[in-house]
Amino acid sequence: MSEFILETNGLTKEFKGFAAVSDVNLKVQRGHIHALIGPNGAGKTTVFNLLTKFLPPTAGTIRFDGRDVTHEAPAATARRGLVRSFQISATFPHLTVMENVRIGLQRKLGTEYHFWRSEKSLDVLNDKAMALLEAVDLASFADTVTAEMPYGRKRALEIATTLALEPKMMLLDEPTQGMGNEDISRVVDLIRKVSANRSILMVEHNLSVVANLCDRITVLTRGSVLAEGSYDEVSKDPSVLEAYVGSDDMNDAHH
């Protein structure tokens, strides 16, 4: 088994001759929380879209868990355990928190559980759903209609519904975006907790979150890898600081 759960080689995506992502070689170590950072327009979202097969690459390869998945269908790669949290952030706003997690569990179980057939199989799902809600600190919200939950808690629910699919690796797209400090620290704790036994790749603007949470960091700028290393290494790199000039992100993280 390779120490890297995810590897891209020469990953490139061109739109009408413009390279949004250019020759990106990314290696995510098993069990690591790995961050993808960079100024706006650096290509971070495009990389995520390539990894999840929302977009086909112009060139390059993607290996996940030892297999070349470059040309695989999105659902097939997701079934291997590479899951992006927003793929199900289409939580159903008018259902309860519990019902949303149960739907995630049913998707994982596929057709094995025709839940309308027997009360018993529903109970199994209920127990599992409750355990997931406890894991993300939402047990007290089980019967709350999702739309009525605070924003930070909705993001926790997205993580719970992602966990229902038992991913080997989670892709988190700006998990703390739009949150206040209290929500941020709760979500950071949650990510740290769910990272046990799995790998995480996250795009994150908040660099103090990255500094706190991530084992390794890749800095993208204009679609290419500018630097990679620990937060300490990357944040002292003059070329990284220069790329962030005109944005206060790096300075903010140091305060």
Summarize this, please?
With 255 residues, the protein is of the alpha/beta class. Helices cover 38% and strands 24% of the residues.
Describe the protein's architecture and organization.
This protein is α/β, with parallel strands linked by helices. It has two domains: 1-81 and 168-255, P-loop containing nucleotide triphosphate hydrolases (Rossmann fold, 3-Layer(aba) Sandwich), CATH 3.40.50.300; 90-166, no CATH class. It has ten helices and eleven strands. It has helices at residues 44-51, 74-80, 97-109, 119-135, 151-163, 181-194, 207-213, 231-236, 238-243, 249-254; strands spanning 4-15, 18-24, 27-29, 33-37, 59-64, 67-68, 82-84, 169-173, 199-203, 216-221, 224-229. It has a six-stranded mixed beta sheet with strand order 7-8-9-4-10-11, with helices on both faces. Strands 1, 2, 3, 5 and 6 form a five-stranded antiparallel beta sheet that branches. Strand 1 (4-15) and strand 2 form a beta hairpin. The model has no long low-confidence stretch (mean pLDDT 88).
